[in-house]
Amino acid sequence: MHDDLLLTLLVLLPFIGSVFAATVSSNARNSEAWLAGAVALSCLILIIAAYPAIVANGAIRSEFDWIPALGLSFSLRMDGFAWMFAVLVSGIGFLVVLYARYYMSPKDPVPRFFSFFLAFMGAMLGVVLSGNLILLVLFWELTSLFSFLLIGYWHHNAAARDGARMALIVTGAGGLALLTGVLLIGHIVGSYDLDRVLASGDAIRSHALYVPTLVLILLGALTKSAQFPFHFWLPNAMAAPTPVSAYLHSATLVKAGVFLLARLWPVFAGTTEWFWLVGLAGTASLLLGAFFAVFQRDLKGLLAYSTISHLGLITMLLSLGSPLGAVAAIFHMMNHATFKASLFMAAGIVDHETGTRDMQKLGGLFRFMPITATLAMVAGAAMAGVPLLNGFLSKEMFFAEAIETHLHSVLDTAEPYAAVVASAFAVTYSIRFIHSVFFGQKPADLPRTPHEPPFWMRFPISFLVIACLIVGILPSVTVGPFLQTAVVAVLGSRTPEYSLAIWHGFNLPLIMSLVALIGGALIYVALKGYLQQCADGPPLFRLLDARRIFDDALVILSWRWARFLETSLTTRRLQPQLRLLVLAALLAALVPLYARGLGPLAAIPSRIDPVLALVWLTGCACAIGAAYQAKYHRLVALMLLGGAGLATCITFVWFSAPDLALTQLLVEIVTTVLILLGLRWLPKRSEAVDEPVTFASRLRRQRDLAIAVAAGVGFAALAFAVMVRPLPDTIASYFLENAYLMGGGRNVVNVILVDFRAFDTLGEITVLGIVALTVFALLRRFRPASDSLGAPEQQRVQNAFDEAQPDRKQGDTVGDYLLVPAATMQWLFPVIIVLAIYLFLRGHDLPGGGFAAGIAMAAAFILQYMAAGTTWVEDRLRILPVNWIGMGLLVALATGAGSWLFDYPFLTSHSQYLQLPLIGSVPAATALLFDLGVLGLVIGATVLMLVALAHQSVRKLRAARLSAAAGEESP
Amino acid sequence: MSASILSWSLLIASLLLGVALAIAAFRMIRGPRAQDRIVAFDALYVNAMLLLLLFGIRTGSTLYFEGALVISLLGFVSTVALAKFLMRGEVIE
User: Fold this and answer.
1) How far is C-alpha A717 from the chain's CA centre?
2) How many other CB atoms are found less than 10 A from the CB of residue A506?
3) Residue A116: what pLDDT?
4) Is the bond preceding residue A416 a cis peptide, omega within 30 degrees?
């Protein structure tokens, strides 16, 4: 198969599957599992099919340009090392899917699980296969995100939510550090391409920025791999469903960190800084993880700490900077994935069958589930490093490396001892895992009676355990060649000679192994009694709860400091905010004016048009009146504001901006209605109840007045000053020249909106849609003030009058009042629609366009609501503003994407003239379609907001009716 | 001759409309009743519409007529909304 297709398919297939999985009905466990299993299996087959090509060529590659200007390409690359990881990710993924089919309860919403699972798998494959470091970071962050969703899968459970959040914060922050580190690498190397980065190891190691880069990359890798001191998130992530733990915390998520360390090993390793930083983190994780694991009560907690310890082992091996160490690390990544995944699944079965994971409660399960117990024992033995199992082989290599001297230092001398101690603890917790669960006292008060799980639930474990055995007994025949390909991919020409045999003779590593095995068993015997009744967590360290430290840090950061900043720097009162805003604007205008001056004058208009002067007089009077009345007479202020707006529109016309004038007029009209709708819910204000005017408040008011006058007059003066100066050569002239030539439209404003800057418009309409939806959502929870709850006074008077007359019924008065206006308003409906269509169609060449047309349409709808009331209109007219919004966005997007079909960039427009019978030559640009999207969205957004406000009255009616009904029932 | 008659009458008409705008604004500011203000508001819109038409004739351009069309067709929407607000206490019930 073609490399491009194969690699792209590998990364895309899980994501496509994820989308499909999300759409399947919520109780279809089987079809979900079939889908997810098929996806994982196809990936695995594809990967295996690529193996010969990798052996032959070293790596297969595929590259598409993404943002070439930034050095970002969608470049995928699979060499032997990536191949090994891809097999682990997809193979164990497949087994976990099979396991999850039986593990997940029918009550769990499985589509969410499998959808996230597949997406995570895709992200993980992306990390492994990325050939571009930026792309790698992108997938890296995706794994953080999906692991967050997977860990928090049971989001009704507080522990799951907390664990998920902690994992996201820790790994997400690490991802940010990694991104910065990658940018630094790009700066040093001049490229983000993995091949080029791997080839420039010397340049990076000798660069001045080596240490910062290293630290940032390590932050990313160590947080992801849960290495000390960032290890605390992993045990808390155990609130996830067990399939998630088995997948994320054995083979994939946490392995991403060590994967990256090994990937960049040829570039970064070998320096003192690398040895100390990575070595300390690895050794600490190895020791502490193993020590903590012994004292866990929770089965999965034990496995989590053991994972930290084993990853610490890998990290420590990588820190040594010797090729043999890297070989051992890569080998152990593989081995750890197999036995840890099977142990997690075994723990899940125990939990599933007994209802508890507490090792102090469990015991004697061997007689209930002998097969599972046997499998778990073999996997546990592999974890402990018992001979004839794969764990033993990599541990031997680890011991052999630990006793070698790499860099004379305390850490290097201490490493063999640390290795033996940690391995002894590993033996202890492995024995504890097996002994306390499957042997000893039969449990007394289990929530359920355990029995053997179905065969297919056990199958994944059996498969992995058999793999452990086969690799452990016949390493060089089975896993040898694959390991060799992986090692060569990382080390290249530095690949050392190594032997995968079980028996290397009676040497020091073997003695260390024996010491660890015997020592670990003795420790278990010594601690057994204590472990049966101790509290959770290791002694001494129990008080030092990493989670609590983390939570405290979060509280300080996101609550105390944030609150401190908020209270000391901000205010919730509107007046000071406005004052600051205006002052800032004033300053922003004054500073450049003072620094740069105004520049030379052009001609000052000598004659003043008396008509325009009158219009301005009117406008100014209205504006000042509005400001004066705003506090106590909102209705008057609103009308005066309308007057000022009208004067503005006339001014636009006078200065030949008909397009602007048209749009502004429509906006004025709809805004007036909108504010009136809101005005009904504002509490009344009375001058009588205001506090007395003191000297201080008078002073404050005068100061505010001075600021307002300065800003207003200053702004007017500035606008005037700009208008009487020569226009610099701006981008405007380009638009004026090219609007018709390139956009096919004579209305330059419209061509800019829908063609030149269509991408901006797309963003703007998206924001408009979001705003409308937000307004809608907020108004659904709107609780009006108590004094505006009841019907307005006018309605009460009119209703009382109607009820008092014997021949009238409620609502007659308003019907009579509105008889003629309502008829006019209803008959105008089609007329306004014609106007809207007219405005829309001429928009490309003449004033008008989708926005104006949309608002005109919205006005038509509002008119109907005003004429006959919400109930009447909605009985007769189905208005679905949300659908309009969606349709508008989709049409705009589809128009933009349509240009891809013709190999043009997004949102390229095409224009031509169509000959229509009777009408003649009609301009037909694809931009018109885009404008149609704008039209739909504006109608939808405007109507949605207005109707959401209007519905408040209906809700009030309904609430009144409900309370009345309740009142009738109760007596 | 006729051109100068036209230009003079256009100027005078525009001036008078401008004065009408100012008067309507005065009524809107002074009131005293809300009803007066709303009628003045409507008058303001009608005057503005006529002013736009005259401006179109003065400049010999039809570009401004759509503005006038919008005011004449939709300008009353805000008037109706205001009137309904006065009459019923809310715009849409």
Assistant:
1) 47
2) 8
3) 92
4) no
User: Can you give the length of chain B in residues?
Assistant: 93
Q: Where are the alpha helices (DSSP H) in A439-479?
A: 455-473, 475-478
Rounded to 5 degrees, φ, ψ at A491 are -90, -20
Cα distance between residue A98 and residue A117, in whole Å: 12
Distance (Å) from the C-alpha of residue B27 to the closest C-alpha of chain A? 11
- pLDDT digits over A18-38, tens only? 988 888 776 677 888 888 899
Backbone angles phi, psi at A355, to 5 degrees: 85, 5
Contacts of A625 in chain B (CB under 8 A): 28-29
Q: Is the pLDDT of residue B50 over 70?
A: yes
Distance from CA of B41 to the nearest CA of A (A): 7
- Strand bridging mode A72-79 / A59-67: antiparallel
Q: Is the dihedral of CA A62, A65, A69, A70 positive or negative?
A: negative
Say whether pLDDT at B17 is over 90: yes
Asked if residue A1 has pLDDT above 60, the reply is no
Closest-CA residue of A relative to B66 is: A662
The model's pTM: 0.72
Helix axes A253-263, A133-151, angle to 10 degrees: 160
Query: Residue type at A828?
Result: L
Tell me the shortest Cα–Cα distance from B1 to chain A, in angstroms: 23
Q: What angle do CA A15, A20, A26 make, to 5 degrees?
A: 125
* Under 8 Å between Cβ of A118 and A100: no
CA distance A70 to A199: 20
- Are A619 and A643 in contact by the 8 Å Cβ rule? The answer is yes
Chain A interface includes B65 (CB < 8 A): no
Amino acid at residue number B76: F
Residue B35, chain A, CB below 8 Å: the answer is no
B34 at the A interface (CB within 8 A)? yes
| Record: contact A792-B67, CB cut-off 8 A | no
Q: Which of A418, A387, A133 is nearest to A287 (CA)?
A: A418
By the 10 Å C-beta count (0-12 exposed, 13-18 middle, 19+ buried), A69 is classed as exposed
Assign A190 a pLDDT band (cuts: 50, 70, 90): confident
Phi, psi of A400 (to 5 degrees): -60, -40
Contact yes or no for A848/A662 (Cβ under 8 A)? yes
Q: How much is the pLDDT for A971?
A: 44
Picking from A622, A669, A817, the nearest residue to B74 by CB comes out as A669
Q: CA B47, CA A319: separation in Å to the nearest integer?
A: 84
Most confident of A128-142, A524-538, A812-826, A846-860: A128-142
The reply to whether residue A835 touches residue B63, judged by beta carbons under 8 angstroms, is no
CA proximity to A345, closest of A379, A368, A315 = A379
pLDDT at A923: 64
The domains found in chain B, sorted by start residue, are: 2-88 (1.10.287)
Cβ within 8 Å, pair A832-B19: no
The number of angstroms, rounded, from the C-alpha of A436 to the middle of its chain's C-alpha atoms is 41
Question: What distances in angstroms separate CA A196 from CA A132, A185, A191, A208, A274, one per listed residue?
Answer: 10, 11, 7, 19, 21
Judged on CB neighbours under 10 Å (0-12, 13-18, 19+), A736 is exposed
What phi and psi values does residue A483 have, to the nearest 5 degrees?
Answer: -60, -40
The pLDDT value given to residue A798: 85
User: b/e for A454-463, b at 16 or more Cβ within 10 A?
Assistant: eeebbbbbbb
Q: How many helices (H) and strands (E) does chain A have?
A: 40, 4
State whether residue B39 sits within 8 Å of chain A by CB.
Answer: no
C-alpha span between A672 and A638 (Å, rounded): 7
Three-state SS at A682: coil
Cα–Cα distance for residue pair A201/A219, rounded to 1 Å: 20
d(CA A820, CA A873): 17
What pLDDT shows up at residue A540? Answer: 65
| Average confidence score pLDDT of chain A | 85
